[in-house]
Write a structure and sequence with these properties.
alpha+beta; Structural Genomics Hypothetical 15.5 Kd Protein In mrcA-pckA Intergenic Region, Chain A; five-stranded antiparallel sheet; 3 helices; about 20% helix; globular; tRNA-binding; rRNA-binding; RqcP; ribosomal large subunit binding; RQC P-site tRNA stabilizing factor
Length: about 90
């Protein structure tokens, strides 16, 4: 499944164009490798996303083409969520 679609369906990012923009600005890594919006996401992948001054790291548990709101959180597990001072750093 495409990264931008996964982020939208899992409701990590509410809109697909926003997910595409975040990915294409180099703010998302899959398994430590910089990802584009068209990158494939598989079950077991670790995804690190930078939102402004927050870094969210998740593990992909399920892939669905569409979900209900209550089922979206079952698609991933949060590994870590931390605040950062420098918004340009994914490390």
């Amino acid at each position: 499944m495409r990264l931008d679609k996964f982020l939208k369906v899992s409701r990590i990012i509410k809109r697909r164009p926003v997910a595409k923009e975040v990915a294409d600005k180099g703010r998302i890594q899959i398994n430590g490798i910089l990802a584009k919006s068209s990158s494939n996401v598989k079950i077991g992948d670790q995804v690190k996303i930078q939102f402004g001054n927050k870094i969210l790291e998740i593990e992909v548990l399920e892939l669905h083409d569409s979900t209900k709101k209550e089922d979206a959180e079952k698609m991933y597990q949060v590994i870590s969520e931390k605040r950062v001072e420098n918004s340009n750093n994914l490390d």
